[in-house]
Amino acid sequence: MDPWLLWLIAAATLAVAEIFTLTAALGMLAGAALVTAGFAAVGLPLLLQFLVFTIVAVVSVLFVRPVVRRHMLQPQVERFGVDALVGRTAYVVSEVTGLGGRVRIGGEVWTARAYDETLLIPPGATVDVIEISGATALVHPRE
User: Fold this and answer.
1) Which of 3, 13, 14, 90 could link 40 by a cystine bridge, Cβ 3.0 to 4.6 Å?
2) Which of 52, 72, 92 corresponds to the end of one domain?
3) Phi, psi dihedrals of residue 123, rounded to the nearest 5°
4) What's the pTM?
5) In this model, does residue 72 exceed pLDDT 90?
6) Is the backbone of residue 57 left (phi > 0), alpha (psi -120 to 50) or beta?
7) CATH number of the domain bearing residue 92
8) Structural domain count, the chain
């Protein structure tokens, strides 16, 4: 079997293993094996193929992997789903107490409870969404 084909098989195997580990290291090694397959296809001797693989693998693991990991570990900037509702303004549709009520957040009507259970918030009042618990918005009146 041709050496370039063996390097391609190694690259594919490492790429599949990277999918399951998500460490970025095996992906870098898969890239190094792919580059080496290209050099092997043009007839580079076996010893030099291993040298190319070693150099590309070391350079990618030392320099590219930290950048990739830094981007993978960044906190999520955008809030989605119910997390995006926290901090928004809502309007009371039916009286909100510590036991229940209804508010309109954007274009949707949500069940709501007063964040402070002693409060009674009348219909038409403007409130802030403090927290979402299940399908219930915990709200506090605007001052």
Assistant:
1) 3
2) 72
3) -60, 145
4) 0.52
5) no
6) alpha
7) 2.40.50.140
8) 2
